[in-house]
Each structure stands twice: as structure tokens, then as C-alpha cells.
Design brief:
It is a single chain. Helices cover 43% and strands 19% of the residues. It has nine helices and ten strands. The strands form two sheets. Strands 6-7-5-4-8-9-10 form a seven-stranded mixed sheet, with helices on both faces. Strands 1-3-2 form a three-stranded antiparallel sheet. Helix 1 (8-26) packs antiparallel against helix 4 (68-78), helix 2 (35-42) packs across helix 3 and helix 7 crosses helix 8 (156-169). The radius of gyration is 20 Å and the shape is globular.
Length: 207
């Protein structure tokens, strides 16, 4: 059950904590850490880290800190990462190809199970062990593979219509690279990744 009272900004920091804790354990062999050490490595105050984690329980002890492996497991359970998630990629262009081949997805439990396009020249193309499917098969494949997450890599003028189809088919979370704001029901999660907007934000600080 999702606790709607926990701010989304808190949830957005949990994967960052998880990534750094995993690095501490796997690359540096550490068994324990503190909110101070974690905050110093991430540029986040130790008080903020303690406050974020307190939404979900008590994970550390004063004088001892956090047992890293235990906290990693707890964060994975909170984020529902103890299972593998099937993901659909919509758009088999250059970015769609790159995302399909991105090994970190599978390493973190996200299996690219299907990729779709409406270009006849791309339909039937093999990407590793996945065949690009016709958009006409979208709903059927999503149902068959129990896909709840999708990555949208399509032009802005097609994004909303495809989003509506994804939601009707049962998708509940969308990562969108389309340069447009999507209208979705309140229970649908959408995250946006627009490199141009991110670059434009940074140019403000360069003048």
C-alpha cells in the first residue's frame, strides 16, 4: 500500500540513497555508514537523510549508524524492487535503440520486454532478443506480458495519444522523453527526461 502522505520529493531521493549505499557495500566493502557520511558523499544534509528515512521506520542507531546491507534491503522493499518489472519502449529510433541496450536496466530489475514502432522499415527489426513490434499490437502485448511501465520515445504530436493507449492497456508508470506535458489520471506516475530543458536550465548560471 502506497502512503500518499509521503512527499514525492522524499521518494525521489530514495533511489539516490540506494545507489550510493550499494556502491559503499559492493565497491568499498563497507558494512556500516552514517547519515553524515552519506550526506557528505551526496551533497545532502545528514538531517534531511534522517528525516527522509524516518518516514519508513527506524533504520539506524546512535553511535552505530546504519547497517548498509540491511538498509539496502529495506529500501529495495520500499521501492518494490524485490521483483523484476517488464517494461515497454515506445519508439525504435536512435534513443529507443540505446535504451533497449542499456544494461543497467536489467541489472536493477527492469526488463525491456517489448519495443514498438509504427514505421514499417523498423517493424520486425531485431534488437538483441527483442523484435520491434507494430503499434497495432500494443494493447495485446502489454496484457500478455503484464507490463506496468513504459518508456516513451516519440514525437510530441504523438505522445498524448500513445499515452492514453498505454494507460487504457494497463500501464501505470511512464518515463517520457517526449517534449510535451502529458495529461494523465492522478493514479498514473509520469517522469520526464528532456535534455534540452535541462541544458537550458544550466545556461542561466553560465552568463
Amino acid at each position: 500500500m502506497v502512503n500518499q502522505e509521503i512527499p514525492d520529493i522524499v521518494i525521489s531521493r530514495l533511489p539516490i540513497y540506494l545507489r550510493e549505499l550499494t556502491r559503499l557495500a559492493e565497491e568499498e566493502g563497507k558494512l556500516t555508514t552514517s547519515s553524515h557520511e552519506l550526506g557528505k558523499r551526496l551533497g545532502i544534509s545528514s538531517a534531511q537523510i534522517r528525516k527522509d528515512l524516518s518516514h519508513f521506520g527506524e533504520f539506524g542507531k546512535q553511535g552505530t549508524g546504519y547497517h548498509i546491507n540491511y538498509l539496502v534491503q529495506q529500501l529495495r522493499e520500499i521501492l518494490h524492487l524485490t521483483r523484476e518489472w517488464n517494461v515497454a519502449v515506445i519508439g525504435a529510433g536512435y534513443l529507443g535503440h540505446a535504451l533497449t541496450h542499456y544494461k543497467a536496466f536489467l541489472e536493477q530489475g527492469f526488463h525491456i520486454a517489448a519495443i514498438f514502432d509504427n514505421d514499417p522499415a523498423k517493424i520486425g527489426e531485431r534488437l538483441d532478443d527483442i523484435t520491434v513490434q507494430d503499434m497495432a499490437d500494443l494493447e495485446k502485448t502489454i496484457a500478455e506480458l503484464n507490463i506496468k511501465m513504459a518508456i516513451l520515445v516519440v514525437p510530441a504530436n504523438a505522445a498524448q495519444e500513445i499515452t492514453d493507449r498505454l494507460i487504457d492497456a494497463g500501464v501505470r508508470a511512464i518515463l517520457s522523453y517526449a517534449p510535451i506535458y502529458l495529461k494523465v489520471p492522478p493514479d498514473i506516475q509520469v517522469s520526464y527526461s528532456d535534455p534540452v530543458v535541462q541544458m537550458q536550465r544550466m545556461t542561466y548560471y553560465l552568463a
